[in-house]
Each structure stands twice: as structure tokens, then as C-alpha cells.
Amino acid sequence: MRRILWVLIVVMIVPSIWAIKRLGSMDKPDSLQERLGDYQKVTQRDRLAAVGRLSEIASRDRHFFSEPGDYSPLKTPGPSDWLTHHSESGQTFRQFTEGKPNYPNSGQHKIVLLPLGEFPENEQAELELLRQFTAKFFMMETVWLSPLAIDETKMPFKVSESRRRQLFTEDAIEELIKHLPDDAYCMLAVTMEDLVPRGNWNYVFGQASFRERVGVFSFARFDPKFFGEELVAGPIIARRRCLVLAHEIGHMFGIKHCIYYDCLMNGSNSLAESDAGPLNLCPVCLRKLHHSVGFDLADREREIAEVLRDQGLTDDADWYRRRLARITTD
Length: 330
Fold this sequence. Notes:
With 330 residues, the protein is an alpha/beta fold. The protein is built from twelve helices and twelve strands. Strand 6 (157-159) and strand 7 form a beta hairpin. Helix 5 (124-138) packs across helix 8 (236-252) and helix 11 (297-310) runs antiparallel to helix 12. The N and C termini lie far apart (55 Å).
């Protein structure tokens, strides 16, 4: 098996390296006392330095990277939150560019989404809304490929203690690499199957390879019915899908976890922590994405608001509308 730089979407407490991602579970978490105290509070000076020199940006765009009224500094983490258990130093805009991330180009210019396995017929409209959100969030052409049948690929799996099939993520990634289109900047497979890496894990929500530009994540645990619970009122499942998908693709652009603001690129230790986070990028992470793609900032804010409204995510849509109104009237 080829050597790949992995990204795990983890939920519980795991070794603290930046390549490990949000939402998953290991069998034996570290004790809380071993991890408390690692978090170092970020100052206002740190946040401004992380955004970088706004004089390098066209004057008409500078308001999009300023914070007054639009962004909240990241709160001191609670006992079970991500940064309590994972020591992360953050990534400034300058560090991002010096890391020489992958950039879209004329040959690799699409975000490709791939259904892995079967989806219920009533999911088709939701999947189309997810494609629309992805296209607007990254301002790149986004397409669905035809579903890839799991049984035809003969992907290895195990059966969990709850008698559910769990696909091994490393093997799924190896298979997905074979299906990456030539014109794809990146490809993310989505599945209703539960996922697990090899080793001492219970599950993960997903895993990705930065260098190979492919990843996979599962919708299964976003739905309370997976745990035998009643559905939460409101479009919470759609929001979870949008947030984690955008977060995961953000990592494929080379954007690391954010420690500066409440931001879509924050790490998360649980669904509760993830649900409390915003569906927008902070000034630091927005500048990284804008540098990579080069979209019109006002058009992006407007179009994201529209697609979020169509998904019933009115609070998130209103955030984008208020922000755009403030910027365009300043």
C-alpha cells in the first residue's frame, strides 16, 4: 500500500497531530488531567498577525478580512472540547502560503463528489443541495459522479459490536484514488456506511489524503436514528453535512485547523461542539481560500446566503446577508 498523508475526521480524544481531523472515536482516550493546560489563549495581536498585511489586498476587498461585528474570537475550550485535548499552534496566512499548498488550475478545476454505495431515493434532492452549497462555498464547479458500488470494489470491512458493517477507510482511499478524474482538483466520496480506520478505533466520520486529493466521509452518524433516537427538529442533518464537507475540502486546500476565531475550520471533539460552530470561515481562513481560488468575495457571500436559505438554514443565511450588507454600505 502506498504511503499517504492521512487526515482523520475524529470525535473523541486522539494523538495530537495536525493531520488528525474532526469527529471520530478511539477505544482508550487519554485522561483529561493529562491534556488540560495545553491550550494557550490567542490574543488580538495574534489574530491580526495571522490574517497578514491587508495592504497586499485590493482596497475594495479589505473589509472582507476585518472582524468588527462579524467574528467572535475562539472561546476558551471547555473540559471536553477539541483544544483541551489537542495541542495546536494554528496556521497563519503566511504559513499557509509558505507551505506551498495545492492550487486549482486550468487542468484540475473541479470539485468532485462521489456517492459510495447506495443512498435512499429520498436523499437525491438533499444531495443536489449539498452540491450547490459546495459549489458556492468554494466558488468552483462541483459535480456528482455516478455511484460507486461497494460490493463491486470488494472493499474490506469489519462488523462492529452493534452488528453494523464498517468500511476500512485506508482501503476506501486506495480504491478512490483509482477513480479520481483527470480534471478534478479533489474528490470526496460520501457514504451511508459507517467507517473505521485499521487499529485501535471504534469509528471515524471520515478520512482524507492531502497529497492524493481524495477523501471519504460518512453521513451515518449525523442522523439520530443511527443511535435509535428521534430526529432533532429543524434542518440539523443538512447543516452537519454542509459543515463537515466544507471543513474536509478546506483541508484539501491545505488549510489547517483554526485557533483564532469561531470558524468552520475549528477542530471538534463531538457533534455538540461541531453543531455550536459557525458555517462560515474566519478572516484568516477566508484569506487562504480566496488566495487559492481567486473568487469575487461579494458574489460568494451573496450566493452562499441564497443556497443556505434554500436548505432552510436561515440563521446561517442571515449571517452572510448581514455581513454583506455591512461591507457594501461602509
